[in-house]
Amino acid sequence: MDDVSLRVLDHLTEVEEAAEDVLTTKQQIFDLDTKRNCNREALNALKHEISDKEKVKVCFGNMFIKFSKSETTQMIQRDQKQLDKEINNLRKELRAKVGRLNEIQGNPELRGCKLSPLSSNEMKAITSLLTS
């Protein structure tokens, strides 16, 4: 192959790898979000359908273990916090990966992609300015 063909092939390989990386990250976010929704359903069921004194069977791998309702709720809430952190980190990574893919493809940078929501303190400050 000549030099031009090799450069085109290298460029296409780089674009394909970057696109695959973006798709993999999206799939990870989807999988974690599905798990987070299942946890949310479990918390709701614990809250509404089971009395406080009942023990709950929790599946760990291929065995079930009985825990109190409060212990189970705490475990699921800790898992929810961890899932939220992981999903947020993956979303931040995804923005960078999409930006890199656009850069490789020669597309302009996405506008507004690097925006982040206001913190609660910033919202309080804006609200106090608007109400006064």
TrEMBL record:
CDD domains noted in UniProt: PDRG1
Compartment(s) where it occurs, according to its Swiss-Prot or TrEMBL record: Cytoplasm
Pfam families: Prefoldin_2
Primary localization class, coarse: cytoplasm
GO cellular-component term (any): cytoplasm
Keywords: Chaperone, Coiled coil, Cytoplasm
A molecular-function term among this protein's GO annotations: unfolded protein binding
One GO BP annotation of this record: protein folding
InterPro entries attached to this UniProt entry: PDRG1 (IPR030482), PFD_beta-like (IPR002777), Prefoldin (IPR009053)
Coiled coil: 73-107
Similarity-based family: Belongs to the prefoldin subunit beta family.
Biological role stated in the UniProt entry: May play a role in chaperone-mediated protein folding.
Assembly and interaction partners: Component of the PAQosome complex which is responsible for the biogenesis of several protein complexes and which consists of R2TP complex members RUVBL1, RUVBL2, RPAP3 and PIH1D1, URI complex members PFDN2, PFDN6, PDRG1, UXT and URI1 as well as ASDURF, POLR2E and DNAAF10/WDR92.
Identification of the protein by name: p53 and DNA damage-regulated protein 1
Record lineage: Eukaryota, Metazoa, Chordata, Craniata, Vertebrata
